[in-house]
Predict the structure of Nucleolar 27S pre-rRNA processing Urb2/Npa2 C-terminal domain-containing protein.
Amino acid sequence: MFLEGDPILTSASITEEDVVNYLEKLKNADTKPCQKEITALLQNQNVLRYFKFHVEQYCELHKLIITKIEDSHDYITFLKDDGTLHRLIRERDDFFNIFLEMLVPTLIDTCCKFSENEKVFMASSEVIQKCVFSSKEFICYFTDFFEKKKCTEKHIQCKALLKYCASLCSNLESAGVGFKLFFYSFSKSSKNFNNIYKMLVILLEICGFDLKTEFNFNKLKYQVQEPSLNNALYILNELLDTVTKLKVDLESKINDITFSDFIKKLVKSVITLSQHPNICCYQILLKVAEINPLIIESLVNEILVYVMLSDNTSCRKEYEQLMIKIFEVFSKLHRTQNLISKMIPTLQTAIKERKLNELPYSFRGTVDVQLKTDILYSADDILPEVILEYFTSCIISLASWQTINLLKTMTFHLKKAVEQLPEVQEENIYVEILSSLTCWLLLSVRVAEHTVAENTVVKFAEGLEELKTILGQFGAKLLQREHNHVLMRAFLNISYYWAEVYMTLEYYSVNNQIKMTKTLDNNFSAFNLTYIHPYLSNKEWCHISERINNFGEKPCKKIMQKLLIQKLRAFLIFGDGNNDVVAPIIRTLSTSFDAESVDIFSDRFVVNTVLDKMPTSNIISLAEILVKDLVEGNTKVLDEPHINDSQLITQGILCVIFTKINKLLKQKRKHDDTSVRKALCSKAMSLLPTDMFLCGRIEEVLGSVSEILVSESHHQNIDLKMQEEKLELYLELLTKIPLIFCSESTQKLTVLLLMALHKDSQNCENIKLKCEQLIISIVQHNRFTLLDLFESSVLVKTLVDSFDSSEDLFFQIVQNVFKSDTAITKFEPGVSYIKDNLRQDKCLRFAVTLFNVLSKIRKVKMSPQSKEVCLKYKSDICHKMLKLVLKNSPEDRLIEVFGLVLKTFLAKDEDDTLSKLKTRLPEYVEYSFNNMSNINSKACLLLFTTILHNKTILGDFSDTFILRIWDALKTIAIQNDSLEEYSQLVTLITTLIANEHFSNIFGNLMKVTERSIESGDDKEFCKHLKTWSCILSTNVNPAKTNILREQLEFLLEKLILLLKSRLYKDDLFEEVIQFKISIIQANHVPLTASLIDFLLSSVSILLMKDSHDFIHNFSSSITLLENLLKYRNPLIMDRLPPYLLQYRLLLKELCLRGSSHVTLQPTEAQKLTDCAHKLEKLTKNLVECTKDMSRIAMYLIADILGQYELDTMDPNVKKHLNNCIYSLIALCDQHAVQYLMRVLSNPCTEFFKIIYANYKKYRFTGKI
């Protein structure tokens, strides 16, 4: 022990020398004293008496202890200890200054050190509150300060604190944390927001903002000398961060200046002083939006100029967040149209001359924010896709009349812009921004839906007609001036989306009230777009296409391609197309394909309708780009459903992959060198064209390729070490494409090429293994047999000679063979080959596999002739195996064979054969006991199960024999493929064993299970749990059931401790939960009160685990509760309160993580929504228990509404929680509804009124 025997604890009177020695000892120690020792020291009365008169040493002791702490949890524990900074010491007059000088810097440094841990900051704040702000002195000081009263000597502590704050500004990080720490601590200790407002003003005055003129307060002596604007903005951001966590009174006043007005002027000052925002400025604006969104609305013009016309490359993420926040504010106020109306003219003016001059609060120091004046504006930077996507969601939420007004706003400004097209290149950006907003508006409108009123659709169509006129003027003007790619791109984009919306409106219009003007002529040129774009003539469109071909940049060329595809789609939709129209478009698209056109040619319409009409070279080019993306790990395009479903693209990818494999197999050789042979795969591919999978003649070449494989039966001596890595990569790519959905001929050719590559790679194990896995997966998912490609004996011989995974492949082949009458007959040579070569290990395994498949043949529908052939195969194999086991001594490979033969002849009436087997049985049993291992475990399990099933026929096997089997089972690991046999054997053992032995078995199993938990051997522990699960599935007598129940109680107690003490591990925790579910589902096992408590407590324990495991733990908890409700309903209804306690815990944790303030990735958000859906399903299951739940439903409703009041929910999560409420309302009578109306808080009552009104309006009453 660090303090053991130290005089500082043992002496009745402590001297200064003792304390100095102890402090020196603590300073030089390699480790810190433990928390128990620290508590003993700080609560020792002798120590306290000494330190009461030596405050400086007391603070130094605390400082040393804190500096020695390396863990945030230990730091928080120390600060929260009752002995830390004892009240007796804090009451000393000299404590404040010493604390400020010695301990506060240490607290600030520790907060910086653990900046990611919010709890560290909170614990430090609590210390500041009780040591600095425990009295009302600061409130009195602030009152005197703003009333310009003379500050007397009684405010010494306040002045000392302000002086210390001014000194902090030399270090930026310390200053930010220090100011925030003091401000937050004061905010928590003061209940009046006006005092918080005053402190904020004073702290900003210290930083360098000149607020004295505005607020007319006393002169502040303690200010930062030569303050830096950069530092001041950083501190301001930290202070506003604290304000966002408080309950803000926006109308609080100091000298008639409300807090809202103060923040507004502060924002104006920040904008004017900095001119161009940095990350800190963006964070300030975001926090202001959180404090009072209306400030953002009132200053939107200045903010838009400030942020949109600045270089945001270094703070792009913050810029996007702020712009989304601005759109969110206006969307919630239903003023999206107002925002656009302000944004467009403001940007137009500001692009010409950017002015930000209004400065309510000046700054005393240096403006050291870096300014960049030579900014090259880009529409993609000003309005990136993330912002436009949010703009889309704002448009979707608009009422129909607002959408029409927004379109009118866009057309008005677009018309003005077209009339005054800018001559200066830099001003074109305004038209491009306007074009971008118009396009996303057209992309997002939902006027074609059946729920939209007919009048609204007609008015929107009128707006489109007006836009059509503007587009005609726009195009004509562009052709009258030199080519400008920015303006041309803007025009083409609007044209494309205008036609998209109009086509959709006409297609879905009711009674054909919307008719798009379509022009048909005799000019079949691909670039004659007048059919759906009649506002320009044929010549004008051709002129535009010539300009783009000659001078256009890639974006313009891509839009022209999209317009051509749009024209083709329009012809097909409206039925006016013919080959004369379609052919030129296909030809033009084929010649214009390049690597940058992938997103166009991977469009759903192109893939489903156009791609099959294009040359195969285009398909292969597209496939090459997709393969390149796959190699780089980019699967975004291939993951699209229409791409994934396209057989053409899959076949193109196959062409590319096998062409690349063929290139890798080609080896250089000298003229006279005959040792280097041509690869078998290359020989096979030499028979095929380049577009081998796309040519449509695959069936014709399958026989030729198969002949090469058969004739070249010897193994190739090819060195693939140099190409191994690339070959593995290409074979891995084959696993990522939907090959199994291609045509049968395509898959057969793929199998043949893989078998050829397999023969070429006999010296390369990894390539061999990959080829075998691919062949198995193809054969496994199809009904065709390889007997279509090879004679059966040749196929079996190939598997024996070449394949390492031959047994798995043979099993899949046999499964398919015995589904076809023709294949069954064809397979006879293969069966003969197996029978003649049973001494070979692989042939023996094939025989066992074939025998097992034939044993289940009764369940397969086939002709009587085929069944006779199958029975003949089975009989021949069985007799061959019989001879083998009778002639040979027991060995590992023969145990399963013996078990199968024994099982077969036990079912037959052949006493002679059975007596021979019974004679050999003791040898095989003894060999199995002596040589049982993980390798032959499945065979031994089969043999033992067969013996126990036929215990009386085979001889009187006593309990000793059964116990011996049980002991043997302990030595093996349970594999998934042998789990069924293991379960059967354990079931037989528990059924046949006597009660007293049953008790011993369980006692022994409990001991080894407990030992595996204590040792942390998860693999062994999971094995024992599987054994327990097998025993649970056995319906035993009452005496055994009681023994089982007692052991389960003890085991569940151990499992609860395991869940509490261990970090989350998928395999381990899933095994535990699955075992608990098996207990619940075993209806023959009675659940005691303690068992139910153990099962329910699992939910709360799982939810206490780390947040990144929440999804798994939530799903497991729901599954547990659902099974309890389903299989043990009467018991749960008797213990409903503890069950619903777990339900409430799930609800609370889901709402915490489903808060709209929590930033989640799309996949995480979807998983959280799935969790909410699972809770909804559990609620519906609860509601079905009407009798017991009707009196409790209203309390659950109150719980859910209470969560709504605490935080704003994610809409997708809230949708499912609303459904929970609707389900529960169905159980509430009028008295329950009135009760809720009375007892709920005001916000909850409003929520409930809306939900209840919707319920009454839309519920199904049984009438239609």
Notes: The two ends are 81 Å apart (CA to CA).
